[in-house]
Amino acid sequence: MPKLTKRAVEALRPEAKDYFVWDSQIAGFGVRVMPSGARTYQAQYRKGGRTRRVSVGRHGKITVDEARKLAKEIMGQVARGENPAEEISLHRKAPTVAALCERFFDTHAKERCKPSTQKEYRRAIDLFIVPALGSFKVVDVERKDIADLHHKFRGKPYQANRTLGVLSKMFNLAEVWGLRPDGSNPCRHVPKYREIKRERYLSQHELQRLGQVLADVEREGSETPFVVAAFRLLILTGCRLGEIQTLKWEYITPHGMELPDSKTGARRIPLPQPARDVLANLPRTPGNPYVIEGKLPRKYATDLQHPWRRIRERAGLHNVRIHDLRHTYASNAVSSGMPIQMVGRLLGHTQLQTTMRYAHLADDPVRRAAEENAQRLGMSLNIPENQVRKFQVIS
C-alpha cells in the first residue's frame, strides 16, 4: 500500500467495479475509485463486529492532506467509543423542519387547537417557516437561524412574533418526541419585537352614524337582517366575531348566551334586553340552527367582512375594523366607571393583563367626579365663577 499523495491518487484508473486503495501510514485511511472515475477519501474502522466506512470528501474538493486530517479525527472519535458512521447515518435519516411542521400540524394543531388557530399556524408554516427552514434538519437548527428569520420580518412585528411563537411550540414538541435534546429549543432568548396595540373606539357620534346606517340598510334590504343583527349584537355584547357568527338558537337561555366553546372555553355571556330585542326581531328558518343565517341551507354567514366594508364606508368609518366594535363595548364599560375586573369577565378574558389596555379610560369618571367636587368646594369658598372656570382649564 503506497502513501497516498495527489499524484498517486490521480494516477488511479477506474475499473468495472469500485475498488479501494489504502494509505501506508494511517490504518483505515484510503481512497475509493468508482467506475465513473470519481475518487472519494474514506475512513474505515470496525465497531460492534462490523466494518464501518465514512466518506470524508471527494478528491478535487479537498486535498489528500485535508482528507488525512479528517480521517485522523474520525479515528480519534472511534478510540473514544463513538460511532461516527452510525451518527452520520442517523443524521441522514433525521427529519427536516418541513417534516416537523407536518407532524406538528397533524398531531398537535388538528387535535388540540381551534380552527382559527389552526388557520394561523398553517399560514405561518406555509408562508414563512418552510420557505426559510424547511430543508434544515431539525437537529441542525440553531438560534441564529431562528433569529435571522425573525429579523427578516422586523417590518411586520406582529407576524414576526406569531411566527416565532409557532416555531417555539414546534421545537418544544421536537424535544418531547426525542428529535432534539432536552433544553435545546433554538427559539429561547430570541427577543420579540414590541407590538403597538391598536386602540380604536367609536365615539358616541360615530356610534349614532353607524346605528343610522344599519337601520337604513335594513330598511332598504341592501343587507340581510342577519348581517345587521350580527353587528348590533357585537356592539351590545362585546363578543368576538366568531362567537356571534356561529351562535346557535339553542345557546340562548334565560341566563344569557351559553356557549359550549369559545376562545377561552365554555362561556356564559350576559344578554341584555336590547340584545334580546335584536334576537326577537330576527326571522328563523326551520332546520337552520344558526342565529346569523348564511346563504346556504343550515349554515351560518361565513363572510361578514365584505358587508362590514360596505357599511363602514357608508357611515364614514373608513379605518374601523369589526374587532373595534368589541373595543368600543369595553371602552364604554370602563368609562362609565365599571371596575376593570368586571369588564374582563364580560369580555371573557382569562388574564387581567389583557383587560388592562383599557385601564386609562377609567380615569374619565374619576376626572368628572373631581370636576363636580371642585365646583361644589369652589362655591363654598366663594370663589368667583370666572376663577373657577380658569382653574378648570389649567387642570
From TrEMBL:
<dbReference type="Pfam" id="PF13356">
    <property type="entry name" value="Arm-DNA-bind_3"/>
</dbReference>
<dbReference type="Pfam" id="PF14659">
    <property type="entry name" value="Phage_int_SAM_3"/>
</dbReference>
<dbReference type="InterPro" id="IPR010998">
    <property type="entry name" value="Integrase_recombinase_N"/>
</dbReference>
<protein>
    <submittedName>
        <fullName>Tyrosine-type recombinase/integrase</fullName>
    </submittedName>
</protein>
<dbReference type="InterPro" id="IPR013762">
    <property type="entry name" value="Integrase-like_cat_sf"/>
</dbReference>
<keyword id="KW-0233">DNA recombination</keyword>
<keyword id="KW-0238">DNA-binding</keyword>
<feature type="domain" description="Tyr recombinase">
    <location>
        <begin position="197"/>
        <end position="371"/>
    </location>
</feature>
<dbReference type="InterPro" id="IPR044068">
    <property type="entry name" value="CB"/>
</dbReference>
<dbReference type="InterPro" id="IPR038488">
    <property type="entry name" value="Integrase_DNA-bd_sf"/>
</dbReference>
<dbReference type="InterPro" id="IPR004107">
    <property type="entry name" value="Integrase_SAM-like_N"/>
</dbReference>
<dbReference type="InterPro" id="IPR011010">
    <property type="entry name" value="DNA_brk_join_enz"/>
</dbReference>
<comment type="similarity">
    <text>Belongs to the 'phage' integrase family.</text>
</comment>
<dbReference type="Pfam" id="PF00589">
    <property type="entry name" value="Phage_integrase"/>
</dbReference>
<keyword id="KW-0229">DNA integration</keyword>
<dbReference type="InterPro" id="IPR002104">
    <property type="entry name" value="Integrase_catalytic"/>
</dbReference>
<dbReference type="InterPro" id="IPR025166">
    <property type="entry name" value="Integrase_DNA_bind_dom"/>
</dbReference>
<feature type="domain" description="Core-binding (CB)">
    <location>
        <begin position="95"/>
        <end position="175"/>
    </location>
</feature>
<dbReference type="InterPro" id="IPR050808">
    <property type="entry name" value="Phage_Integrase"/>
</dbReference>
